[in-house]
Amino acid sequence: MADLLWDDVKCFFDPDLMGSLPDMRVPDASVQDWQAVLDLVAEKGWKCQYSEGETVLPVPRAEAVLARPADAECPNLRVWPTADVLAIFRFYADDEVDFDVDLRDLQGQDRLDVFCGFLREIGRRLNKPVLMDPEGHYGHPVLGFDIEADRVVLLADP
Predict the structure, then answer these.
(1) Nearest Cα to 24, choosing from 12, 32, 35?
(2) pLDDT at residue 136 above 80?
(3) How far apart are CA 109 and CA 97, in angstroms?
(4) How many whole angstroms from its chain centre is CA 63?
(5) ∠ CA 90-20-105 to the nearest 5 degrees?
(6) Are 92 and 77 in contact (CB under 8 A)?
(7) pLDDT tens-place string over residues 41-82
(8) Exposed e or buried b per residue across 121-140, where buried means at least 16 C-beta atoms within 10 angstroms of its C-beta
(9) Biggest alpha carbon distance in the chain?
(10) What is d(CA 41, CA 121) in angstroms, rounded to the nearest whole number?
């Protein structure tokens, strides 16, 4: 059974309405949570690419990435849960797991199901909510993984 039905939520996946890169986040995180995400990516065998600027490097431990100097370029980890769905994790801070998805890649029920499955995997591993805010509207989630419901749910009216 799908967490969400495309016809019910497609407005939240409209790049013109939401911005093409909504803000995905796990609040109240820690370095250990970041490491758990890195471990999950490896365990699931999801294709990934870690880079600092233009330099592609092996995926380091979370504490090494998050201990970089404040003026260093922000590294990112590109993760493909499937060949046509990409999430880009950005290591801005240790207290929030932050990533982007491109709504143009998440059109239709099949891609929505992949997206919800990805959020579920992260939320279950961390035992924390995984929230999606419209681009530029931080703190106003429209949907996310709910720990108690153990699924992705709507957090705002369509």
Answers:
(1) 12
(2) yes
(3) 26
(4) 19
(5) 90
(6) no
(7) 999 999 999 999 899 999 999 999 999 887 888 899 999 999
(8) bbbebbebbbbbbbbeeeee
(9) 46
(10) 10
